[in-house]
């Protein structure tokens, strides 16, 4: 029987808890859910074993998951496998992809397949590596490689001045004709304030971005001039080789300014943190993937098509900052490294 | 003051109310997007929780028969680590994985950065509003409940207090115990406050996963406490305290020098050594104090000031030398706790009954 009159305060407790719980559930349900149309996009990388491309793929998948995107993925068998990428472009177009992200293995050979996809209404963004011609794709999302070289050039110059050393420079380059390597080389020279052929450059070698070739090249240059005290390396794999060659001839970390580009976790933790690599320009493959997925998803839902070039960012990571050259601490590099 | 004048219930309600206000102050703080308002909100929240704890412990003791007071207090305190674990869980699920990635901020325009900052702060706002809501609910439940409690007697208090302070100061076991408690709480807050930063800055653990290492730390603390309770029935408390102190020093030093996953696991493992320290130091320091136990207990509670003073020192060391080297501070603190245990093992004192047992 329901009795009128004042309820005991203790009886209010369960009711109050029930109301609070219902309110919490309502708030949570409003916070969940995604009202965007599902769209299909594609991602084609050079190969899945390279940590740089692993980071791109992982970030693309995460962003796709958050944005109600079905993401089709494919990878070549090697850095020069164009055939697999051509087949993947056709397959993804047939499967309804409205946009495709691609890291081209061959900048010119991939162009006909990309143009075919675009004629079918697919938007295409090149990541990391440009196509030849650049206009073959809607947009390029990549690191500004010239800026990367310039940053480490400026650092090397300032550090040499601070340490009062007379520069003797070794250049460990990529390979002839590869745009990214040439841009980094040119950027370094500009940042350091010198030109090709400067008397302060002891010599340059091509490393193909490999550790073994980096070590062999560095040994050859040290044989030419044992007093080399500044080493430019096109990427961190080459830097590992250079460090090994320097160690083999008994040169200490303090006596040589070694700079590089990439920002991978192994380099940051095992080389930059202890001071073997003095500074590296860290690039962000996750930004390429995240911005690429977002831009293509927006276009697929009726928004503007991606165009032009998006600079996906760089930071100089060093444990020994120098005046006049902006940089971030090693901890920043560790938090944002890849691989 | 509140407890003495208005009773424990009023003290509890004052603490709950002030803490709820602190939670609600996050609303204007997240609108202003400046550091100072957040600090004020945290200060008000923490002040309320301090009043709550100071009122709740004696309230729990006073609300029932004296013979079961310690049991009631231990039961109440047993919820502390549960709450701490839930708090960290909230951070690991609701906040950390949804923060704007740091790399994304590198290419943002100032307007985009502002929006990202607002978004990140809104993640923090939700849990604090939730806490405020729960505190208000508990406030209402307690306010509506009749809870008679006895008033405290205050005869000859002034004279007894002066005498007690002099006696306590002369008692080395007590004096050094307060210092040990200061450094123990300092080590505890330092170890936990910077676990996530160690995971991110030293090992490169992504933000979404870093919180789980702190969660593991707290779970380890909870489980170890039960194990230590069992072991305390077998071994002399200060022997175990010395062993755990030395373990804590070793693990902290591994964290300093092993800048990888091993170091991170060592940092997490420090919680094992911390688990028995507060109640053990509390009990050892108060042993044999007799009628001075009440004042002695107050002094030991004040030693938690270590938790406020040591973290900024570790922060300073980290700014200079990196997150890993910062763990030299807990190493030093735990070394001092170990010294207290060894001091107790090697010296004698007059026997005396332990009047009350605390927990943290």
Structure, described:
The complex is a heterodimer of chains A (339) and B (360). Chain A contains eleven helices and twelve strands. With 339 residues, chain A is an alpha/beta fold. Chain A has two domains: 39-143 and 285-306, Response regulator (Rossmann fold, 3-Layer(aba) Sandwich); 145-282 and 315-336, Response regulator (Rossmann fold, 3-Layer(aba) Sandwich), CATH 3.40.50. Mean pLDDT of chain A is 90; it is low at 1-10 and 25-33. With 360 residues, chain B is mostly helical. Chain B folds into two domains: 1-150, Growth Hormone, Chain: A (Up-down Bundle), CATH 1.20.1250; 157-347, Up-down Bundle (Growth Hormone, Chain: A). In chain B, 78% of the residues lie in helices and 0% in strands. Chain B is globular and about 65 Å long. Chains A and B meet through helix 1, helix 9, helix 10 and helix 11 of A and helix 7, helix 8 and helix 11 of B.
Features of the shown structure:
heterodimer; A: 339 residues; alpha/beta; Rossmann fold; 2 domains; six-stranded parallel beta sheet; six-stranded mixed beta sheet; 11 helices; 19% strand; disordered N terminus; B: 360 residues; mainly alpha; Growth Hormone, Chain: A; 18 helices; disordered C terminus
Query: Which strand order spans the largest sheet of chain A, edge to edge or round the barrel?
Result: 2-1-3-4-5-11
Anisotropy-based shape of chain B = globular
Give the number of DSSP strands of chain A. Answer: 12
What is the H-and-E element order of chain B? HHHHHHHHHHHHHHHHHH
Helix share bin of chain B: over 70%
Going by CATH, the homologous superfamily of the largest domain in chain B would be MFS general substrate transporter like domains
**Percent helix of chain A:** 40-55%
Write the layout of secondary structure elements.
The complex is a heterodimer of chains A (339) and B (360).
Chain A: H1 9-31, E1 39-47, H2 51-66, E2 69-76, H3 82-94, E3 99-102, H4 111-119, E4 123-127, E5 139-142, H5 145-162, E6 169-173, H6 179-192, E7 201-206, H7 211-224, E8 230-233, H8 236-248, E9 257-262, H9 265-272, E10 279-283, H10 285-300, E11 308-311, E12 314-318, H11 330-336
Parallel strand pairs in A: 1-2, 1-3, 3-4, 4-5, 5-11, 6-7, 6-8, 8-9, 9-10
Antiparallel strand pairs in A: 10-12
Helix pairs in contact in A: 2-10, 3-4, 5-6, 7-8, 9-11
Chain B: H1 2-6, H2 8-24, H3 26-32, H4 35-62, H5 69-77, H6 79-95, H7 102-105, H8 110-143, H9 157-170, H10 172-193, H11 195-203, H12 207-231, H13 237-257, H14 261-274, H15 277-286, H16 293-302, H17 306-321, H18 328-346
């Amino acid at each position: 029987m329901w009795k009128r009159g004042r309820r005991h305060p203790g009886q209010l407790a369960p009711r109050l808890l029930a109301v609070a719980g219902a309110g919490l559930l309502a708030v949570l349900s409003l916070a969940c859910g995604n009202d965007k149309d599902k769209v299909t996009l594609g991602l084609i990388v050079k190969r899945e074993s390279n940590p740089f491309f692993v980071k791109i793929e992982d970030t693309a998948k995460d962003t796709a998951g958050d944005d109600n995107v079905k993401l089709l993925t494919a990878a070549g068998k090697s850095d020069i496998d164009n055939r697999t990428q051509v087949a993947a472009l056709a397959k993804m177009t047939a499967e309804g992809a409205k946009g495709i992200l691609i890291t081209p293995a061959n900048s010119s050979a991939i162009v006909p397949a990309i143009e075919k996809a675009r004629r079918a209404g697919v938007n295409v963004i090149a990541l990391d590596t440009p196509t030849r011609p650049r206009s073959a794709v809607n947009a390029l999302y990549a690191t500004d490689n010239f800026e990367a070289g310039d940053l480490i050039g400026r650092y090397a110059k300032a550090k040499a001045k601070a340490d009062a050393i007379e520069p003797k420079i070794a250049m460990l380059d990529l390979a002839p004709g590869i745009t990214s390597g040439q841009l980094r080389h040119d950027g370094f020279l500009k940042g350091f304030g010198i030109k090709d052929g400067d008397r302060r450059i002891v010599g340059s070698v091509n490393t193909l971005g490999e550790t073994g070739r980096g070590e062999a090249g560095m040994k050859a240059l040290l044989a030419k001039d044992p007093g080399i005290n500044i080493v430019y390396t096109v990427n961190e794999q080459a830097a590992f080789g250079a460090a090994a060659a320097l160690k083999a001839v008994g040169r200490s970390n303090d006596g040589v300014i070694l700079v590089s580009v990439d920002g991978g976790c192994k380099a940051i933790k095992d080389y930059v943190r202890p001071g073997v690599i003095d500074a590296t320009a860290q690039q962000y493959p996750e930004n390429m993937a995240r911005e690429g997925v977002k831009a293509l998803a927006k276009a697929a839902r009726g928004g503007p098509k991606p165009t032009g070039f998006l600079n996906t960012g760089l930071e100089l990571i060093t444990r020994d900052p120098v005046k006049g050259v902006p940089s971030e601490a090693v901890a920043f590099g560790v938090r944002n490294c890849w691989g | 003051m509140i407890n003495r004048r208005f009773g424990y219930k009023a003290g509890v309600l004052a603490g709950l109310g002030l803490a709820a206000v602190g939670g609600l102050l996050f609303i204007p703080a997240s609108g202003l997007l400046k550091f100072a308002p957040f600090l004020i909100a945290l200060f008000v929240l923490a002040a309320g929780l301090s009043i709550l704890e100071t009122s709740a412990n004696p309230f729990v003791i006073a609300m029932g028969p004296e013979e079961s007071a310690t049991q009631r207090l231990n039961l109440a305190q047993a919820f502390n680590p549960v709450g701490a674990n839930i708090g960290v869980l909230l951070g690991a699920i609701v906040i950390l994985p949804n923060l704007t990635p740091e790399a994304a901020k590198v290419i943002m325009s100032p307007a985009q950065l502002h929006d990202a900052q607002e978004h990140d702060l809104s993640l923090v706002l939700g849990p604090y509003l939730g806490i405020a809501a729960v505190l208000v609910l508990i406030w209402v439940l307690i306010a509506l409940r009749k809870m008679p409690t006895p008033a405290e007697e205050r005869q000859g208090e002034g004279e007894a207090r002066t005498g007690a302070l002099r006696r306590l100061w002369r008692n080395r076991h007590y004096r050094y115990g307060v210092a040990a408690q200061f450094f123990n709480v300092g080590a505890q807050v330092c170890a936990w406050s910077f676990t996530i930063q160690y995971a991110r800055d030293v090992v490169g653990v992504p933000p979404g996963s870093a919180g789980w290492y702190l969660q593991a730390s707290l779970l380890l603390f909870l489980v170890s406490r039960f194990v230590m309770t069992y072991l305390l029935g077998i071994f002399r408390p200060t022997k175990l305290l010395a062993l755990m102190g030395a373990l804590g020093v070793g693990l902290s030093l591994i964290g300093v020098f092993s800048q990888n996953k091993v170091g991170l696991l060592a940092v997490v493992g420090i919680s094992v050594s911390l688990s028995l320290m507060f109640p053990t130091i509390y009990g050892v320091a108060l042993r044999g104090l007799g009628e001075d136990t009440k004042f002695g207990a107050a002094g030991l509670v004040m030693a938690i000031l270590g938790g406020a003073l040591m973290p900024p020192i570790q922060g300073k060391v980290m700014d200079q030398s990196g997150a890993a080297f910062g763990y030299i501070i807990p190493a030093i603190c735990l070394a001092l706790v170990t010294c207290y245990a060894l001091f107790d093992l090697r010296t004698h004192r007059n026997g005396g009954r332990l009047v009350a047992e605390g927990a943290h």
